């Protein structure tokens, strides 16, 4: 279920699919659909509240460009192409791995 909040924020409130049918690919497709819907309807940001113990959800939302909010449960992401390009540019940098520690 998607909702709007304030004039420019879309909220992914719930993904309601029978557990036996919810695969990672379907889950990702539903979130991508919600993000596309937000962008097509002029919403500039997306928000989702994620349980901190749900590692799969956190990994998916981070993969899709969400970043953690102030409370640790809320992830946010812009839907505007220019803002996304700016985020991608800011993420470029050097990744150094020392042994087994990151």
Essential attributes:
102 residues; alpha+beta; Aminopeptidase; 5-stranded mixed sheet; 20% strand; globular
List the helices and strands and how they pair.
Layout: E1 2-5, E2 9-12, H1 24-40, E3 45-49, H2 55-63, E4 67-68, E5 74-78, H3 81-91
Parallel strand pairs: 2-3
Antiparallel strand pairs: 1-2, 3-5, 4-5
Plain-language structure description:
With 102 residues, the protein is α+β, with helices and mostly antiparallel strands. The protein has three helices and five strands, in the order E-E-H-E-H-E-E-H. A five-stranded mixed sheet has the order 1-2-3-5-4. The longest helix is centred in the first third of the chain and has 17 residues, at 24-40. The termini are far apart. The model has no long low-confidence stretch (mean pLDDT 77).
Poorly predicted spans = none
CATH class category label: Alpha Beta
Oligomeric state of the chains present here: single chain
Class inferred from helices and paired strands? alpha+beta
Q: Beta fraction of the residues?
A: 15-25%
CATH architecture: 3-Layer(aba) Sandwich
Main beta sheet: strand number and arrangement?
Answer: 5 strands, mixed
Count of all domains: 1
Overall mean pLDDT score? 77
Task: Tell me the radius of gyration.
Answer: 15 Å
- Biggest sheet strand order reads 1-2-3-5-4
């Amino acid at each position: 279920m998607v909702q709007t909040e304030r004039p420019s924020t879309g909220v992914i409130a719930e993904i309601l699919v029978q557990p036996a049918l919810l695969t990672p690919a379907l889950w990702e497709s539903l979130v991508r659909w919600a993000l596309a819907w937000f962008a097509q309807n002029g919403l500039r940001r997306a928000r989702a509240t994620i349980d901190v113990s749900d590692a799969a959800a956190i990994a998916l939302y981070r993969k899709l460009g969400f970043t953690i909010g102030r409370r640790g449960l809320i992830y946010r992401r812009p839907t505007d192409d220019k803002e996304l390009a700016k985020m991608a540019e800011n993420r470029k940098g050097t990744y150094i791995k020392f042994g087994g520690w990151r």
